[in-house]
Amino acid sequence: ENQVYLAMGNLLTVCAVEDIDACPMEGFEPKKYDTYLELDKKGLNAVLVLAVGYRDNQDLHASLKKVRRGVKDVVVEIN
After folding, report:
1. How open is the CA angle 38-27-3, to the nearest 5 degrees?
2. At 48, phi and psi to the nearest 5?
3. Per-residue pLDDT at 61
4. Is 23 helix (H, G, I), strand (E, B) or coil?
5. Cα dist. 5→9, 25, 64, 78 in Å?
6. Is the pTM of this model over 0.85?
7. What is the C-alpha R_g of the chain?
8. What is the pLDDT of residue 79?
9. Greatest CA separation found in the chain?
10. How far apart, in whole angstroms, are the C-alpha atoms of residue 24 and residue 49?
11. Chain-centre distance for alpha carbon 28
12. d(Cα 39, Cα 34) in Å, to the nearest integer?
């Protein structure tokens, strides 16, 4: 459970190499996933959510320019 992010990192890398879209998500409710997917019946519990797949060819947003913030806007230097 504490190291599942290692597997997620590997999966993200493989998806990038294979041109497969992937998006890790935060803010989900693990207990609701457990119930909906009946994970509790299998002795499992949700730890992270990672959408993996191919984008729709008709997705109008896919071709838009991505907006990225500069390093100075997102990194705080602590001395």
Report:
1. 70
2. -150, 165
3. 82
4. strand
5. 6, 12, 29, 26
6. no
7. 17
8. 84
9. 50
10. 6
11. 11
12. 5
Other Cβ atoms within 10 Å of 52 Cβ, number: 13
For residues 11 and 52, is the Cβ–Cβ distance under 8 A?
A: yes
Q: Which ranges of the chain would DSSP assign to H, the alpha helix?
A: 4-17, 30-36, 71-74
CB-count exposure of residue 75 (10 Å: 0-12, 13-18, 19+): exposed
Q: Which residues contact 28 (CB under 8 A, 6 or more apart)?
A: 46, 49
Tens of pLDDT, residue by residue over 47-76, are 999 999 998 888 888 788 888 889 999 899
CA nearest neighbour of 39 among 78, 1, 77, 79: 1
User: How far is Cα of residue 68 from the mean position of the Cα atoms in its chain?
Assistant: 18
